[in-house]
Write a structure and sequence with these properties.
Length: 435
């Protein structure tokens, strides 16, 4: 009886929080957003999830065409890698500025022009490819990184503004799953488009971007600001105070999310490279399908985790530690089976990706819920900035380690995973409900 009463009180408590928000918006949305059953809520979920999806498509679709780009433009492997790396570095540096602007003005006021810049620069990069102009392509990719800075991080902050309780965790898990889905399908789409013409992906991406832009404009209704926009000085002081008070676990969470994506993209780069070598010789669309296996494990796990954690701090702590342990064990096992059995290697890398899928939705929920609405844009932007930098530096650092030894690759990432597991175990200790 005691347990039953406690559960009822928890459910009532979440519902009351929803109804304490500004009047008319809350009454129409509270029940729908908590249950996720209203038709309007479904379209909102789709609109939010479309933003990280197009973010990934605009980058990862180009990975399969890099060898053809080298051949067509007469550029080096390093120059072609800058098409990916420069985009991610530019976005990583600009994201905190976009986060402040979204707190200062509005989330949609930053997301909408960012999506327009992102898509328009994609068209420019496409014409650069038609003209066989590497400088135009690389400049357009930097502009795309500028536009990308105002997309996924701001969508995460907006999800925190719109939803509370279990629904917020579910939507944040959905955004992570959408991000992972983009990683799964983008190499396949890029490979298929290259069958038409090698630069087709540059022109296809703005179409996806336009669909996301329309979804954001018509399906997302941003809550009105309850307080005046923060000025820069007091705002930075407030961010500093948050990091001082919560930095022990918050900075650990930032580092952990960045490391998880560093390992994920680095390992995919490693797998992509060895698949094309003897004795496998797996290329084109088939290679894209093989690379999709570990990513699919992450996508399914991310969505399931987000749908079930329901702001339960104790459950999140268990899942984060299990996820990091799974990564450490599976990556450590790869040291001993390299190039001996491809099926076992892919299986172990899939287990590592599942660990990532357990970890990231919990981090997203904790970080988004750690601050008030007025500073949420900056905090989520710092987190996403570090994630971008993890993605940017994964492939080149893995390439450098691969030149030394394949064992060095997995010894290094296993050691990093074990150290991070220790940090997560001792420094990130959510209990009860995350609020």
């Amino acid at each position: 009886m005691q347990k039953t009463k406690s559960r009822k009180l928890n459910i009532t408590f979440e519902s009351e929080i929803q109804y304490e928000e500004p009047e008319q918006q809350t009454q129409s949305k509270a029940s729908g957003k908590e249950s996720g059953g209203a038709k309007g809520s479904i379209w909102e979920f789709i609109a939010i999830a479309s933003v990280p999806l197009v973010l990934v498509l605009g980058n990862s679709m180009l990975v399969p065409i890099l060898p053809q780009m080298q051949e067509q433009l007469g550029i080096s492997k390093f120059q072609s890698s800058l098409v990916i790396t420069l985009f991610s570095v530019t976005a990583g540096l600009i994201i905190p500025i976009s986060g402040y602007l979204s707190d200062r003005f509005s989330r949609k006021g930053i997301m909408i022009p960012s999506l327009i810049i992102y898509g328009a620069a994609g068209v420019l990069a496409g014409f650069g490819a038609v003209w066989k102009s590497y400088p135009i392509i690389i400049a357009a990719r930097a502009i795309q990184g500028f536009g990308a800075a105002g997309t996924a991080a701001i969508a995460m902050a907006l999800a925190g503004d719109l939803y509370k309780g279990a629904t917020e965790s579910k939507v944040l898990g959905l955004t992570e799953a959408s991000n992972g889905t983009g990683k799964v399908v983008s190499p396949i789409i890029g490979s298929l488009l290259a069958l038409v013409v090698w630069y087709a992906a540059f022109f296809a991406f703005p179409v996806f971007c336009l669909l996301s832009l329309l979804a954001v404009i018509f399906f997302l209704k941003e809550p009105k600001k309850e307080q005046p926009a923060p000025k820069l000085g007091p705002y930075l002081h407030k961010i500093g105070s948050i990091l001082k008070q919560k930095g022990r676990w918050l900075i650990t969470a930032f580092f952990t999310g960045s490391l998880a994506l560093f390992i994920l993209f680095g390992v995919l780069f490693y797998l992509s490279d060895i698949l094309e070598e003897a004795p496998y010789h797996v290329v084109g669309v088939t290679k894209g399908l093989v690379l999709a296996i570990p990513l699919l494990g992450m996508v399914v796990t991310s969505y399931t985790t987000g749908a079930n954690i329901k702001k339960n701090g104790t459950l999140m702590r268990w899942l984060m530690n299990i996820g990091m342990a799974l990564m450490a064990v599976s990556l450590g096992a790869c040291i001993f089976i390299l190039q001996k059995n491809l099926y076992v290697l892919i299986g172990l890398l899939t287990l590592s990706s599942i660990g990532t899928g357990l970890l990231l939705p919990c981090l997203n929920t904790m970080i988004t819920g750690s601050v008030e609405k007025q500073e949420r844009g900056m905090i989520t932007s710092i987190y996403n900035s570090l994630r971008f930098l993890g993605v940017a530096f994964g492939p080149p650092l893995f390439s450098w380690m691969m030149d030394m030894s394949h064992q060095i690759v997995f010894i290094s990432v296993t050691a990093l995973s074990v150290i991070t597991l220790g940090l997560v175990f001792f420094l990130i200790k959510p209990e009860g409900k995350i609020s």
